[in-house]
Task: structure prediction
Amino acid sequence: MSAREVEGPAGAPWEPPLHGTLDRLVIESDALAGNPLGDPERRPLYVYRPPGVELDHPRALPSIYVIQGFTGQLDMWFNRTPFERTMVERLDAMFAAGDCPDVLIVFVDAWTSYGGSQFLNSSGTGNYLDYLADDVVSFVDERYPAIASRDHRGLTGKSSGGYGAMVVPMLRPDVFGALASHAGDALFEACYLPEFPHHARILRDEFDGSWEILFDRLREADHGAFERFRPFETYGYAAAYSPDPAKPGRALIPFDAHGRLIDDVWEQWLAKDPVRMAPQRAGALRDMKRIHLDAGRRDEYYLDLGAQAFAAELEKLGVQHTLELFDGKHGGLTYRYPGAIRELALALTP
Result:
């Protein structure tokens, strides 16, 4: 008996061959240069091309941009749940089956050392809205057979990515003309406010009430960081929603050491709630070619209520949309992406 090295990928179930092509690129973004956290301006970028779509494809195609939740980084799209396909494999199977019009799928990395950017421009994290809407989109339009028009570009994501999918098209309707949000952060008093007393208690009991101590210990941690240092999530949101104007790279926290709200900081958060932004951005929302929302009915962060509240605002504004509530929680939603991407593709295809 013996073993020997062989050429080529291992194949299923570890690395099944794709019918289409996934380009794994690295780009450098001017928008991220000199960001206050010193995070890299060099970022991975993945572009999926359906079967038969080459760089010199004779017909320009719509493009759909996929953004990740808080703490997401691009290589996580290859994470596998037992006996299930990865995100890339799910999309590849959909296109190979002919169930979706050909579109380019662009996977964007917007990680920060605070965990995420919420896809906004902020002095607390950097210019991630410009990075996505200007630098990444321009690169893809120049490099790929993409239709360079907002009427043929969509944006989708889950959780914080779902927040970005709602907010970025409202802020930059010149770039994105359709959106799909899976359990996106919305109705902030439901999804964020209940966490504040819990985080204030952890900060008091585990880190002497000090954010500096929390981050020092987080940098030293080698396992269990996300749960043990959960308040850092609030700080990451605050860096996007309520940056400290006097200290680039720092944040104003919307509660004090006792868990009591600091009203003026909390108002900065509420101003960035998609539910509250919608009436001010009615024109942009009415111009969307497709808006699709979904969430699990048992979402631990009440983002099903956030999706309902955002949908209710759209209804008041006369904005066409669809809302699907399904049996599920916040995690394990990768299977929801292909259907939503198909809805966007159908709406964006000439």
Remarks:
- The two ends are 59 Å apart (CA to CA).
- The chain has a mean pLDDT of 96.
- The chain has two domains: 21-187+274-348, 190-270.
